[in-house]
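Write out this protein's structure.
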Amino acid sequence: NITKVQELFPIYNELSERHFDTEQQQVRSVLEARYQNRQKEAENTDLKAQTLKNEETIKVQRILGGFILLLTLLTVGGAWFAYYIKRTQNALLEQKVEERTKALSEANHELERSNQELEKSNEELERFAYIASHDLKQPLNTVISFAQLLHKEVKNTASESTQDYLKFIMNSGNQMKRLIEDILEYSKLSEQKRTPEPIDLNSLVAEVKVSILELIERKNAQIEVVGTLPTLEQEKTKLLLLFKNLIENGIKYNQSGAPSIKIKK
């Protein structure tokens, strides 16, 4: 039945094509599904890897954050400890300064009190020296005067030893007189407020030599000024007393038979 076949063949071809298309579509769908599955698996793998990476990053960040927090705590603690130590040291230092200031104040008060007592004692000593030396001067002058009169009276009749005794009395009296005059002069130094004046030390030494001429001759002493002495702005009384005492001590306490004193600049 060719005619029937010819009628059915197009239908068969159409059905075959439809069936082929359906199989192709099914295969395509399967392949597409497999592709999608692989894509999802790859995405899941990447997602897992990214998740692991994020977890590692978070872990590192947590560790770093903990370290930073610990470092911050240590820094704050160290700063507070340093502040505490500094405050303690300042408190101790202030306490020591206060104690030393108090001790210094007490020492100053004690020193001031001692100075006042010393000034009072010096004033009393100077007053005593002035009164004692002034009262001793008159009877000593009497002793020296009568000794000189007695020496003149018995000069030609008395023995040589008697004359030596009288000379010894007069010399000792003169030494005592000079000592009393020095004490009087010293007692006047603190009371007299003299204005400094130009003092030629060469003339001052010559004046001292004249005042102790008897001692110089008796000790056979030599006083020599080497070169030229300067001129000083000072109180003459103080300088005169100073040079007189120095020269007299240089003569009196020299064991030589002929003491030699040299004064130079």
